[in-house]
Amino acid sequence: MPGPCSRHYCFLFPNGRSGYSARHRLRLLAADGSPSIDGKGRPEIFMERAWVPICSSGVSAGAAAGVICKSMGFSGTSSSSKCSGGGCGNAAPGVSELSCTGAESEPLACPHQAGDDVFCAASESLVVACTGDGETQGRPAKEAPPQVTM
Description:
Elements: E1 11-12, E2 18-19, E3 26-29, E4 40-47, E5 50-53, H1 63-71, E6 76-82, E7 95-96, E8 113-114, E9 126-131
Antiparallel strand pairs: 1-2, 3-4, 4-5, 4-9, 6-9, 7-8
């Protein structure tokens, strides 16, 4: 695949161009599986053509949630925890041991385990509460219309 892609860091844009873009690769789901409208929910990363949850196992306290929230455009995070109740979804997490310092621009820039190295059940998914406003649907940001000068 052309562009700056590796096994876990690739996003295919609608125009067929590949590249590295954190804001296009994260979404935040509410307990009912719909996009979160209040900044609280289960974060998922688009990896290898599928949305996968993040396991709460080994997640650095506060720092990983902060990186997740900030990479979706939020100002920060107020909490993170292990999923509980019926809002954990059915998909097993595909990322675990997310060990961030807080300075990273996106979650997969943090040391982590992925793919076959992850042994977590859906009930072990990470849940975050982000603060401020952000993009929770995992859609590419709309490009600004071209400026016309006369």
